[in-house]
Every structure is written in structure tokens, then in C-alpha cells.
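Deviation from plan, reported transparently: zinc ion complex.
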Amino acid sequence: MIPLDQFRPITRLELPQQQRLRPKFPVIDAHSHLTRTKDVAKVLDDMDRYGIRMIVDMDGFWDERMDYQLKHYVEPHPDRFTIFGRVNLCGIDEPDFERKARQRVLECVERGATGLKFSKSLGVKLTDKNGVYLKPDDPRLQVIWATAAECDLPVTIHIADPPSFFDKVIDETHERYEELAGHPNWSYGNRPCPRFPELMEAQERLLAANPNTRFIVAHVGSHAENLAEVSRMLDTYPNMFVDTAERISELGRQPYTSRDFLIKYQDRVVYGTDLLPTPSNISGNYRFFETRDEYFPYNSLDEHNQGRWNIYGVYLPDDVLQKIYYKNALRLIPRLAKLLPDLAP
Ligand SMILES: [Zn+2]
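Because the crystal trials were delayed, the predicted structure below was used instead.
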């Protein structure tokens, strides 16, 4: 037998398999991470090559990384890059945390951040001084959401991780076996952090408690595996929006459900990749959103293999495609419209 990691089957389906490297409309990637490279010129080149008008960099952070991203990306290229700032939650036990957190949000605005970003650490990693895991609905964080609303700053928040990363048993029946075998530290199976359902309950309480704050819940509302549930949340909470970052793998293997979902919630979804552009992930995205292509890879197996399946295109109508590619981002991130006057309505 060939070992699993050497198995590289090539489909014998005789279908059009050409790459698609240019989008039908301008694209704003509303969820990327630019601390992954220091080669600004290459990123700009790739953006031109693949029709990406702007990248929203989630890596604003709260320390010298913010200075670096501003100096190298945003300030020289204000119409190509923008950052979302972050708030350091490590001081949550300190008596003046609330004052400092509010101050930090105001500082983000002052320094030109166009939104805030919170990572999954809030939920699966950070604990307070008593060792209790912080969850997104922790009342001590309320000041942040209120200040964001006051400043008209959207909040992109990544909560939990794929539900299958919380499985206790990762055996031959686990569809993400190869991925987790390659990255055992991505599994929460044997960690003491809250479980997936508990984090989804916290997510719901966060949305319910802050109706005036605009949340872009990353990775298709944290639950691309269950679009019925994401639909229920979107129906219940008008302040909830989602991005598609790193989830065309899930959306594209349920193309009928996804197409209905994307058309129904066409005003609530923004395009994002979570990735630096490469021909394989760019082509996967554009083919997924734009074409009727069948059974094609969402990314190259060697770049990031979430599981051994292929995806299908959902051939969105032009008006829906424009909203998801850039119009919704301009609406949800109001400061962007000023940076991209030619795209703004
Ligand atoms: Zn991300």
C-alpha cells in the first residue's frame, strides 16, 4: 500500500479544469494576515495580478507590530491596505482594564485602523488570574463592543475553530485526519478549554447583548459546516455579518445549500481568504464564487489540505457577486469607502 500522505489521485473526469486568476469584479479581501510576509512589493504585485483592489490586514495588534504594518503597508499604500487593530486582553484582571481597553479602541481609530479584530484566543486560550477561560461574552469586554459601536468600527471576531478540531478521537474515520496528524497542536480534543457548543452559546450571547455593534463573525459565522444554524443566527441578529475566510472548502462541498445561503444573505457576507494570494487559492475562490465548474480543488494539496475533497462552483449572479466581493465591505467598514472613492456608491 502507498502511505496516505503520498496518495495523490488525479481525477479522470474530463471537465474544464482551467485556473481562474482574475475576478469578474474588483475584490476587497476583508480578512488577511500580512504579518506572514515582509515582501510588500510581492504582495502588491500579486494583488494586481489577481485583481485584488484592497487587503484588510487583521494583524494590527497593539504593539510594535501595529507600527510596522502601518509604516510598511498602510501609510505608503493607503488605497491598497488597511488594518484592523487589536486590544490586548492580557490585562483583564487589572482594575483599570476597562479604561485602558476603551483608550485602546480610541487609539485604533486615531491611528487609522478601520476596524477591530479578535482572535480565537478569546475562547480557547486566554484565561484570567483564576485560570478561568475568557469567553467572548465576558462582561469585562463590554466596554470594547460599546466603544466600537460609538466609533462606528466593525469588529471581526474569530470564535472557536472547526467543530471537528474539538473531537476527542481522531482516528481513521475522521475526515480531517491528515490535517490534524500534520498539525496535532490544532486539536482541542484533549485540552481543557470550552467545547464548541459552549463557544457558540457565548457567540450568540455576545451578538444578543450588543445590538448596536457590527460583528463580522469570521469563517462563515464560525460554523460553515452548518449553514442552517448560521442562517438562524443571521435571521435573529441583524448586527451579525460573516466572512468567507478559509471556508470555501466547506461551502464548496455543499454547493446547493451554499448558493441558496449566499443569495439569501447577499447583504451579510464579505469576501475574505485568510491567506496570502497564490494561484491555487485565488483560483479556488474565483471558480467557487463565479463559475459552474465541478469537482475542483479549493487549494493545492501541498499548500493547505483541510481534507480530501473537491468543491463545486455556485455561479453567483453578478449583483450578488459584486456585493460579496466589495460592496458589502465598503458598507460594513465605513472608513474604507473614503479610501476607495472610485468603488464607493
Ligand atoms: Zn484569520
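The pocket of zinc ion is lined by residues 31, 33, 58, 158, 245, 274 (CB under 6 Å). We consider this an acceptable substitute for the interim report.
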